[in-house]
Write a structure and sequence with these properties.
8 strands, 5 helices, single chain, disordered C terminus, 2,3-Dihydroxybiphenyl 1,2-Dioxygenase, domain 1, alpha+beta, eight-stranded mixed beta sheet
Length: about 160
């Protein structure tokens, strides 16, 4: 029996979220645009996300909007496309083997991830969700539970 190739061990399963930045002083306008004009439901963030991150659902996909200050403008990961993957380590090895820019794999509250750059310089977050992610109450909030409902759940313990 032959060993599976790296190509069969690693796969992109879909979009996890899209993260965009906005000038911090425009937060009220951003909330109005995405919440009222586009009609996207706002959802609670995770306990690890900064409080000012605005999260909305666009169908089944999450949109994170992060306030940008002069100091945070240089953050490479602020605007990115996050892809949900299987076989994260194999995918990381494949990108490195082909000379792509890929940062180290790290553990985060959602699972394991690394950031990479495409040939045009766009930042990608490659995330393999933890199996336990679906059992945590805050992890299901981004699936469309309104902020108010999630905040009540936290208050009730």
């Amino acid at each position: 029996m032959t060993e599976p190739s790296l190509a069969t061990l690693a796969a992109v399963m879909g979009v996890h979220h899209v993260q965009l930045s906005y000038p911090a002083h425009l937060q009220a306008q951003i909330e109005r645009f995405y919440g009222q004009l586009l009609g996207l439901p706002r959802v609670a963030g995770s306990p690890c996300a900064p409080a000012r991150v605005l999260r909305y659902m666009a169908g089944s996909q999450r949109l994170d909007l992060v306030p940008r200050t002069a100091a945070s403008h240089a953050c490479e990961c602020q605007g990115h496309l996050a892809l949900r993957v299987a076989g994260l380590d194999a995918l990381h090895q494949r990108l490195l083997a082909h000379g792509a820019t890929a940062l180290a794999v790290v553990q985060v509250y959602e699972g394991m991830r690394f950031y990479a750059k495409d040939p045009a310089g766009n930042t990608l977050e490659l995330l393999q969700p933890a199996v336990t992610e679906i059992s945590l109450p805050w992890a299901v909030w981004p699936q469309g539970v309104p902020v108010e409902t999630a905040e009540k759940a936290v208050a009730l313990g």
